[in-house]
Amino acid sequence: MSLFGLCMHFVRKVLLTVFLVLFYYCFSIGITFYNKWVMRRFQYPIFMTLVHLVMIFVFSGISRTIASWYTGKPHICLSWKLYLKRVAATALATALDIGLSNWSFIFITVSLYTMTKSTAVLFILFFAVIFKLEKLRSWLLAVILLIAGGLFMFTYKSTQFNLKGFILVLIASFIGGIRWTLTQILTQKADLGLQNPIDTMYHLQPLMFIGLFPLFMFSEGLSLSTSEKLFRYHETSTLLHMLLILAGGGFLAFGLCFSEFLLVAKTSSLTLSIAGIFKEVCTLVLASYLMGDQMTFLNWLGFAMCLSGISLHIALKVVYSEGFLFKITYFLRNFWDVLPFKIRTSFLQDST
Hints:
The chain has 352 residues and is an all-alpha fold.
C-alpha cells in the first residue's frame, strides 16, 4: 500500500470513528436529559423503564426478523432451560441498574447523577477480579483512590446534594458492576450464540421486565392506577401526549443500546471507554448551562480527579493487554516500509 493509500485509509477510519462516537453521544447524552425532563412531569420512573423495555424488545425483534430475511440465516432462540439458567442473572442486574438510575432522577441533578454513575468502573473492576476476568494489579489501588477521592470532593458540601438520590445511583452503579461483568461472560460464551448485540438485547428484555415488575407494583402500582396522567385521564389528548413522551424515551433507550454495541463492533471497547470520558464532561457542561446545576471549583476538581482515575485505568489496561507491544511494533515496521526510499535514506544519514 502506498503512503497516500495508507493516509486515506487512516482518514476514513478516523471519520468513521468520529461519526460513531457522535452517534453514540446523541443517544447517551440525549436520554440523560430527556429522562430528567420526563421525571419533572411524570414521576413514575419504574413504569417508564418498563415501557422502555417493551419498546427495546419490539425493536430488537423487528431488527432480528429483517436481518434474518436479508441474510437467509435463522436467528438465535435459546431454549427455556438454557434461557433461565444463563440469562436470568444478567437480566435482573440490568433491570435494577436501569430502574434505580431512572428513579434517582426524581431527587438529584444531572451533574450529581453523572458524577456518581461514573464510579461504576470501580464496581466493574471489583467484580471482574472476583470472576477472574481481570488480574489484581497494584495500580488498581491508584485507580480506586482517584475515583473515590474525586467522588468525595464532588459531593462534599454540595449545595444540590440529595442523600436519597445519591444512594439510589450508588446502588445502581454497584449493580451495574455485576451487570456488565455478567454481560461480558454472557456474550463471550460461544455455545450460547449471543455475540450479536441485537440477539442479546432481545433475550434480556423479557426477564428484565419480569424482574422489575414486582418493584413497580410495590412502589408505583396503586399511585399510577389512580393518576389522571395515565389510567384515569379526563382527555384523550392528555393520554396520547403522555404515551408519546414515554415512547420517545423508549426510542432513545433502544438507540443508546444499539449505538453502544455498534461503536464497539466497528472500533473497540477501548474507544467506547475513552468516548465515555468526554461524554461525562459534555454532560456536566450542558447540565450547568441548560439545567442550572451549580458546581463549585471543588466539585470540578473532584470530577477531574475521578476522570483521571478512569483514564489511568483505560491506559494501563491497554498497556497490560495481550499483544499490545506486538501491535505497536507491527505498526511501526509497516509504517517504515511504506515511507519513500529517499525519506528513509535521509533519516538514516541524519541519525549517523
